[in-house]
Design brief:
Number of strands: 0
Order of helices and strands: HHHHHHHHHH
Oligomer: single chain
Helix content: 55-70%
Radius of gyration: 20 Å
Number of helices: 10
Shape: globular
Mean pLDDT: 77
Largest sheet: none
Length: 227
């Protein structure tokens, strides 16, 4: 996708990377609404105007050689998004003991530093925060993120007005199979909790690849393993 050199009509790698991360962010932000809509109607939710406009703007940037080229580029974006989800699926702790460079499990940051930033023609002098530094900052500012998320999920599910949440929580007590428990959690418990869930807010004035947010969801045990 990034290529070794600039071709006529092709945006520089930094712009391509920025477009990709903006599309990923917009897609991930809508996932909770899509989950709720699928539970209620069986269909994903409609995107708000700003999301539709973002996708149209990105498409217009690459609309220099016809619709076929645009479709090809968005196919590459889709493949990259699928690879990102696949790589992130095990969680940051999965990479704690692997030799994944100073960016650790920060997959987006690693891609940017290796393939986009080193190009002297487009290097903006950007240096993303290394994993150990971000991990230390997260522990200082937010403490045990997973424990807070767990507590907020319980509060959302047991909210007096969340009848569905209380029901799925009770039903989960009889599930012994780990695979079924995982499916029940993601397909039933989370969608029931989301309408009453109070988000955990993180102040990150320079978001970059989102490494601070990755670090904030690490548990103490996994954080020690990463170090």
């Amino acid at each position: 996708m990034f290529g070794a050199g600039q071709q006529p009509g092709r945006p520089p790698p930094t712009i391509i990377f920025d477009d990709f991360t903006r599309l990923v962010e917009a897609t991930m932000e809508r996932l909770p609404e899509h989950l709720k809509a699928i539970v209620q109607t069986g269909q994903p939710a409609s995107d708000p105007p700003e999301t539709t406009e973002l996708f149209a703007q990105v498409r217009a940037r690459y609309d220099t050689h016809g619709q076929e080229r645009v479709d090809k580029i968005f196919t590459e974006f889709s493949r990259a998004f699928a690879l990102l989800l696949e790589a992130a699926a095990p969680g940051p702790w999965h990479y704690a003991t692997l030799d994944s460079g100073y960016m650790g499990p920060d997959i987006l940051g690693d891609v940017f530093m290796q393939y986009t930033n080193p190009n002297p023609a487009y290097n903006s002098g950007t240096f993303l925060t290394p994993w150990p530094v971000a991990l230390a900052s997260a522990k200082i500012t937010i403490g045990d993120g997973p424990a807070q998320i767990h507590q907020r999920l319980k509060e959302a599910l047991t909210h007096p007005d969340n009848i569905l949440g209380q029901a799925v929580l009770l039903a989960s007590l009889v599930i012994d199979d780990p695979q079924q428990a995982g499916d029940w959690f993601f397909n039933r418990v989370l969608p029931a909790a989301i309408p009453f869930y109070e988000s955990l807010k993180i102040c990150d004035p320079a978001v970059g690849s989102g490494v601070m947010r990755e670090c904030c969801i690490n548990s103490e045990k996994r954080a020690k393993a990463a170090r």
